């Protein structure tokens, strides 16, 4: 009897509960951009920021491939039969703006993975041990090698051009101000010389 009890207790100790991330089935309320959307969660319109990825801007700013990322996300969400949010135990539930942070599953496929694989999102904002980051890094490396969208020479060139223009304008402004100061000093010196000549003549 004692041996049987010992076996039962040992078995209970060895059995570890499997803690899965919490998932919820939701409906789309409104598309926002490539990495944010509104969903009806427990009857409430909730803004959700897609965990662990960042897509180019297409709201206030118009960054290269921002439109494509927004269209891809919105199309996937609108055509989905089932949308699920998965809250990661390794992440905060909300970000500093009060948006919920979650993995987005569209008909069983991880939307973040699809965005990264298409070169429409970058793996970013990793502040913990998240469930699918290894998978995201793998597909990101492949997208980089294939130079898809944000990893293409065109996107890099577009960003470089903006930086170059701003830098050149800054240098020209500094040069102009410096030249103005030099000219001002020369005028003052010439005035002083003229005054001294007049004094010497007297």
Overview of the structural elements:
It is a single chain. By secondary structure, this protein is of the alpha+beta class. It has 5 helices and 8 strands, in the order αββββαβββαβαα. It has a 5-stranded mixed barrel with strand order 1-2-3-6-5. A two-stranded antiparallel ribbon has the order 4-8. Helix 3 packs parallel to helix 4.
Q: What is this entry, summarized?
A:
The protein is α+β, with helices and mostly antiparallel strands.
Q: What is the N-to-C order of secondary-structure elements (H for helix, E for strand)?
A: HEEEEHEEEHEHH
| Low-confidence runs of at least 5 consecutive residues | 5-19
Tally the helices.
5
Q: What is the count of β-strands?
A: 8
Strand-residue proportion: 15-25%
Helix content: 40-55%
CA-based gyration radius: 30 Å
Q: Outline the biggest β-sheet.
A: 5 strands, mixed, barrel
Q: Averaging pLDDT over every residue, what do you get?
A: 83
Structural class comes to alpha+beta
- List the strand order in the largest sheet: 1-2-3-6-5
Shape: elongated
From the N-terminal CA to the C-terminal CA, the straight-line distance is 129 Å
């Amino acid at each position: 009897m004692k041996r049987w009890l010992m076996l039962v207790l040992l078995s209970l100790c060895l059995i570890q509960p499997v803690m899965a991330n919490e998932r919820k089935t939701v409906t789309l309320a409104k598309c926002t951009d490539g990495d944010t959307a509104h969903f009806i969660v427990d009857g409430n319109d909730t803004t959700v920021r897609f965990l662990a990825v960042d897509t180019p801007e297409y709201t206030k700013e118009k960054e290269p491939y921002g439109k494509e990322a927004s269209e891809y996300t919105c199309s996937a969400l609108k055509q989905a039969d089932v949308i699920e949010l998965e809250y990661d135990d390794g992440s905060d539930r909300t970000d500093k703006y009060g948006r919920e942070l979650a993995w987005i599953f569209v008909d069983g496929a991880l939307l973040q993975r699809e965005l990264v694989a298409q070169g429409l999102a970058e793996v970013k904002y990793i502040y913990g041990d998240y469930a699918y980051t290894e998978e995201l890094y793998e597909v990101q490396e492949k997208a980089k090698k294939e130079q898809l969208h944000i990893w293409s020479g065109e996107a890099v060139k577009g960003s470089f051009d903006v930086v170059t223009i701003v830098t050149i304008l800054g240098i020209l402004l500094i040069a102009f101000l410096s030249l103005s100061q030099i000219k001002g000093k020369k005028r003052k010196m010439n005035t002083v010389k003229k005054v001294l000549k007049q004094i010497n003549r007297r």
